[in-house]
Amino acid sequence: MSGAIVLHDRVCTALARGRRRFDARAARERLLLIAASLALLGLMADFFLLRPALADWSAARARHAVAVAALQRAGADEARRVAVEQQLARDVAQGQARVDHAAAELRALRATLVAAPEMGPLLARLLSGVAGVQVRSMLSLGPTEAAAAGAGAPAAATPLYRHGVELVLEGRYADLLGGLQAIEALPQRMLWGGLRLQVEQHPTVVLTVRLYTLSEQRSWLEL
């Protein structure tokens, strides 16, 4: 305890001596000492307080810049993802519209086509009334799968079959042309296939023509 008292007395004595010396100086010298002391305190504060705080602030600012850049990249990626999804949705909608349009056209076409079992009898009656045309033969070509009737998934769509008839006709060219025009003028339409002309003995011409219709039934009345 006595040592602490002695130290305290020495400190007080030194401070009092320093104060007397300070007071003994001229006013200008006292101002210079005060300014120097304040400058020293400022340097110490800068070294011990301001520089660490500035370093922490700089590090925090750098972390903030990194976070902002990451958010901007994430926003750009999200915008690209949304744009891709929107484009895919437009492509799907356009594709579905084309499928629906094709399905509507197919339904409209089927509504005008002759029924498969009626092809043979209809052609026989028609051509029997065309002067100068003789039917050599009428042959069924059998069904082949043509398309799907529905616009939904292929597994759920109704298959369509193409039924064909091959006619071999004989007559003069002008008479055969009249027969083809009569077929074309039928209210019940048929799909045209190949045509082949052969002159056997002038003026007789042999015409081979193929006609088709569409049906959901695979089997039909054989000719």
TrEMBL record:
Chain segments annotated as transmembrane: 31-50
Key words, A-Z: Membrane, Transmembrane, Transmembrane helix
Protein's recorded name: MSHA biogenesis protein MshJ
